[in-house]
Design a protein that fits this description.
heterodimer; A: about 110 residues; mainly beta; 7-stranded mixed beta sheet; 1 helix; 11 strands; globular; B: about 110 residues; 6-stranded mixed beta sheet; 5-stranded antiparallel beta sheet; about 0% helix
Chain lengths: ~110, ~110
């Protein structure tokens, strides 16, 4: 069966510090991968998605970036965090061919930028 | 543009009554419409979904209806229970498997 791992679960970072969040998927190949951000009490904002290695589509460039160095690994990064980067970050995967677009989410990272 | 409108943003219903949440999408090529439930501090979980070749789908107390002509789909929860209290999100896919979510509906089940 497929599983998705996302870490860390909680992160407290000072303004201006770098960020690296990692997500890996097991049990499938060539998944679509997504990063969403959820501000407190708000909706799911799509940040990046990838349909293959090295293919990254950016929805909210700003000071965040994403990379997909391996088929089932998706990394969200920032060189300098802003206060507004605080939120709940969710990685997700889907397999359009096998599961028709269903999204499966990781357990999320609660990021607090102070 | 690529957008999913979801209403209402907050909904309070008496326990045992029904709840209906509606979403509208903009891309007529969208062909898959899921609903997710998110409890506080947890990840969204898929609760029901529907494909564009079907008008309605039911799973016990929840159902989803789709009107492709009007480009809207709805979540129906009957005989609501306290554990139905959560935030519900609809979503729709756009080009290149880009999946856009509605802004969410906070559902309160009143005792």
């Amino acid at each position: 069966s497929q599983t998705i791992h996302q870490w860390p679960a909680t992160l407290v970072q000072p303004v201006g510090s770098p960020l690296s969040l990692e997500c890996t998927v097991e049990g499938t190949s060539n998944p679509n991968l997504y990063w969403y951000r959820q501000a407190a009490g708000r909706g799911l904002q799509l940040l990046f998605y990838s349909v293959g290695i090295g293919q990254i589509s950016s929805e909210v460039p700003q000071n965040l970036s994403a990379s997909r160095p391996q088929d089932r690994q998706f990394i969200l990064s920032s060189k300098k965090l802003l206060l507004s980067d605080s939120g709940f970050y969710l990685c997700a995967w889907s397999d359009r061919l096998r599961s028709g677009g269903k999204l499966f989410f990781g357990s999320g990272t609660q990021l607090s930028v102070l | 543009g690529e957008n999913v409108e979801q209403h209402p943003s907050t909904l309070s219903v008496q326990e045992g009554d029904s709840a209906v949440i509606k979403c509208t999408y903009s891309d007529s090529a969208s062909n898959y419409f899921p609903w997710y439930k998110q409890e506080l501090g947890k990840r969204p979980q898929l609760i029901i979904d529907i494909r564009s070749n079907v008008g309605e789908k039911k799973d016990q107390r929840i159902a989803v209806t789709l009107n492709k002509t009007a480009k809207h789909f709805s979540l129906h929860i009957t005989e609501t229970q306290p554990e139905d209290s959560a935030v519900y999100f609809c979503a729709a896919p756009y080009r290149d498997d880009k999946i856009i979510f509605g802004k969410g509906t906070r559902l309160h089940i009143l005792p």
